[in-house]
Specification:
Layout (H helix, E strand, L loop, with lengths): L10 E4 L11 E2 L3 E3 L3 E6 L3 E6 L3 E6 L5 H20 L2 E10 L2 E7 L5 H10 L3 E4 L2 E7 L2 E4 L5 E5 H6 L8 E2 L6 E5 L8 E2 L2 E8 L5 E4 L3 H8 L12 H17 L1 E8 L4 H17 L10
């Protein structure tokens, strides 16, 4: 099986025998890992191993689809490889708008992918979906773009006049699809703004800027597959340094997003808030629409 993976310099091999993790610091029936080795088994899909930030082995089950295998390779296994390389992965999607790097973070269902897709249909340049690798270069955070497609639910696609029947489902019979994006930026780009999206039962949108230790704590909670770090002490120590740099150099705003607000309506308010941040990054913004 030939599979797609975001990092071109990783050696990926399909094999019948997956190597074992030596001296795992986390060990369950389906997961074992330490600082440099990772093993995962997913029922109905297969077994996966990632080592030293540069090698992946996988053994798919006979009935596993390629899209199912790629879903885990590009998710949990990708996260493990980034952790092994000490490249901070944040759980969010990103794009370039008005020459500024914007990252949307939040739990599954918060709308980070659909909002990113909507921005890209409005002229933004696409960077990442769901997992966003961050590095610090010259004391400034940069986004490493490694994708050209976005995972979207059927109802989000319909809101943006896209046809799910013409797209590949992430699982056979699943209601979520891969949407290819045309205006993709392939070079690293500075990160300027992070929005942390929380779904709210209230009718109003609220933008709340974070400061000081609030920023560090909020970013720590957005690390993709953060639960791996208890077995990766060297990576966790390095991430503390990266998070401190991020918190000191990036504007971070929490959003309370109404559950039922349409995608394009939410994008209108986001554009307004980003504009204010661009005009005056020192201005405190606390808007309720």
């Amino acid at each position: 099986m030939i599979v797609n993976f975001p990092l071109p310099d990783v050696n990926i091999k399909e094999t019948e025998v997956i190597r074992a993790v030596k001296m795992p610091l986390i060990s369950t029936d389906n997961l074992q890992l330490n600082q440099n080795e990772f093993y995962m088994q997913i029922d109905g899909v297969g077994k996966f191993c990632a080592c030293n930030g540069k090698e992946i082995e996988f053994n798919p089950e006979p009935d596993a689809s390629q899209s199912s295998v790629e879903l885990y390779l590009n998710g949990s296994v990708y996260g493990a490889i980034l952790h092994q390389r000490m490249i901070l992965p944040l759980h969010g999607s990103s794009f370039v708008w008005k020459e500024h790097g914007v990252l949307l973070c939040g739990e599954s269902g918060a709308g980070k992918s659909s909002l990113t897709a909507g921005f890209c249909f409005s002229g933004a340049e696409f960077l990442t979906d769901d997992v966003t690798p961050i590095k610090i270069e010259n004391h400034k955070p940069v986004i490493i773009p490694l994708s050209d497609r976005i995972k979207l639910w059927n109802d989000s696609l319909i809101q943006m006049d896209q046809k799910p029947c013409e797209l590949v489902a992430i699982h056979p019979g699943h209601d979520k699809y891969y949407l290819p994006i045309k205006n993709v930026l392939h070079n690293k780009f500075p990160l300027h703004f992070i929005f942390l999206i929380e779904v709210s039962e209230y009718e109003n949108i609220e933008f709340i800027p974070l400061t000081g230790v609030q920023k560090f704590t909020a970013l720590r909670n957005e690390i993709y597959r953060w639960e791996y770090l208890s077995a990766m002490p060297a990576t966790e120590q390095e991430y503390i340094k990266i998070l401190i740099e991020l918190a000191s150099s990036v504007e971070i705003v929490k959003i309370h997003r109404p559950k039922t607000i349409p995608i394009m309506e939410m994008i209108k308010h986001l554009k307004s808030n980003i504009y204010h941040l661009i005009v005056n990054s020192d201005e405190i913004i606390h808007e309720v629409f």
